[in-house]
## 1
Amino acid sequence: MTIVVTLAITLQRNLFAVVVMSGIYSFLMATALVVLDAVDVAMTEAAVGAGVSTVLLLGAIHLTQGNETRPLRKPLLPLVVALGVGAALIYGTLGLPAFSDPQAPIHVHVAPHYIEQAMAETGVPNVVTAVLASYRGYDTLGETIVVFTAGIGVIALLRRRRRRE
Amino acid sequence: MTVGSHYGYWAMMTLMIIGLYILIARGNLIKKLVGLSIFQTSVYLLYIAPGKLIGGTAPIIAEKFGIYSNPLPHVLILTAIVVGVATIALGLALVVRIYEAYGSIEEDEIIEKDSGLER
Amino acid sequence: MRSHLILRVVAKLLIPFMLLFALYVQFHGDFGPGGGFQAGVIFAAAIILYGLIYGLPAARLMVPDLVVESMIAGGVLLYAGVGLAGIALGGNFLDYSVLAADPVQGQHRGILLVEFGVLITVAGVMLKIFYVFAGRGKGIDET
């Protein structure tokens, strides 16, 4: 399961194995997303997480030192912090509505309007595409600009070749 | 409030804790970035899980189906995934530059070298 | 030698189908899962596969740097241009209903153009990041 894979990523030293296991983790996440009926998101997560992200990590490993991390002194404080955050989060989930409850607040406000009106107003059966491109088009414009900025940032950081003396 | 059906959320919390632990406890910069991506992916699951209706289907309108899962979280998470990969790409570019400037990607060695250079 | 031959043949068989699949995902994003982001990433992955198997100079010859950089900027310009066309034709910013005589047809046209802009930008950025990462390694080897 995914928890086993992430524990293996934590304990593994060889960076190449870490990258391969993160690809496995992305594929498992995509499967979980399909089970949750999020088909668009699953396709994006599989393409981006297990495709492009793995290629970029491998490129970075090739450009920096290959292989190993170092053994660490006992990380007690981060462990306590992580477990504390987890306990607070689990305490928070006790206030959530039951899983898959049709009367939960997120199902009664805007979502029924989108599902019922998307076909009539835009003529596009895929409600996610209709919402993404038409009802919430501003957000998609902002996201495209974020991707553009990331591209420019990488170009600015890494454009010139290293000049060795 | 039935708590018994929340075990799915607890599994996601476990993934989030592991991702957070990798991010703050390991010293290697590339491993920190992998931990960040694990953390982000568990948050995606956390957002999409409440939108699912048991017995519903994917939000693509067809004549045979009556109940659809909520499409709003899908839209937000689609944006979040692409922004996440942009973050990872930029972070990896920074790691490559740090390696060329300091000669190592371990956090302890970089801090030592930095304080050594300041003196 | 033999394993390189297998990789080359399989890549030659797969890359046209990957490009076709990217276009399919893009244009069927209205009727099934898909849309601009997925299609852009699949398109970039096809060209990255070509670059991995046949070497970076061959990929640079096929999709030159100038084309990639204009793709990055062109997608954002296309998206913003559709928004401004909405203003020019009398509606609000990013209002698609005024783009054609029938509002539903206008929505269709607007969504198609916008998704195409997203495809171009995402494919360009992923490809350019790959070029930059791989090109840097080459610099180390040549000195």
## 2
Amino acid sequence: MARPGRRAEAVLSWAAHDLEPYAIQRHSRLKIAFVPLLIGSYAPDLMSKWFVYGIHVGGLDLKASDPVQFHRGWPGVGFTHSLLFGVVIALLIWRVFGSKTWAISFLIGQWAHAITDTGDTVGTMLFFPWTVHVHIGAWAYAGQTGRLTDAAAYFSGLGGVWDAVWIVYGIFSWRVLTRSYFEQHVYSADGFWASANRLFPMAALLVLYRTAFFYGTSRWIAWTLWAHVVHHYRYDISWGGPHWVTAAHSPPITWPQLAGMAGIVAAIVAAAYAYRLAGRRRGLTATRSET
Amino acid sequence: MPSRRQLAVAAGYVAAAAVYIAIGVAYTDFLFSYFVGLAYLLLVAWLVPAGVRRLF
């Protein structure tokens, strides 16, 4: 472990992870619980990002000596950004809390985060324990440069543009933030809200529901102002930019690796299809035996 | 189209966001925690309006 050059104490993830849950909530045909969906969307960085930037606790400065390796690699906690991690935690939630809806909602949120982070130049070990990093390299990964430079770089490149897409999409989907939508679709889908309603009024729960959207959108505007009005960092929305920052990179994906990934995805899709087909057959058999 | 009441609620959130952004640009530590954002929003969008309604 290395000592960080400056004091840093908070957890950070960028706006897409705040805003994606609202789009998923709106468009998913599955029964979704918003709270575990949001927790799933935050989970990978919640468990890792504090140590990437460094934390100051009780006179101790803690920071990963190799932030990129720690955050996205193995050895490290890069497995938190994998599909398998989402499945394992979802199964634990199902087992411990007995709620399939919470398990699936967490899984969808965590998968959204893991897939979104393949957009940068380091990417994620999506198919962990296979440790190849899936990355499309659209924006620079600069977590190792410290949180302020990371913020400046992110909001100067395609990462910031990606977040802006979610904000615009969210504004066009404004109904998802209304009280009536919350009461009809969010509150009724999850017993958590009724339990919370015994302690807090509906107005407070509504604020809780809207917070991630408020937080993501406000932070996007604040960081953009900070980076480009207060500090004049240069915009560079070229692929893999901004190139003024020293970005971390994963090695390019080879054709055999790509073929392997396609094989894994095909196997998952085939297994899901077979499971669905088997479920339908079981349903048909049950109906026939009843008649 | 949103109703007048929905627009009034949205205007309240926009005003709250303007203050949050101003504080955040001046003190970036304010922007790093979801829980700070949650506490701020609970204060300005629930507790303060509820207190004002109780007073008047």
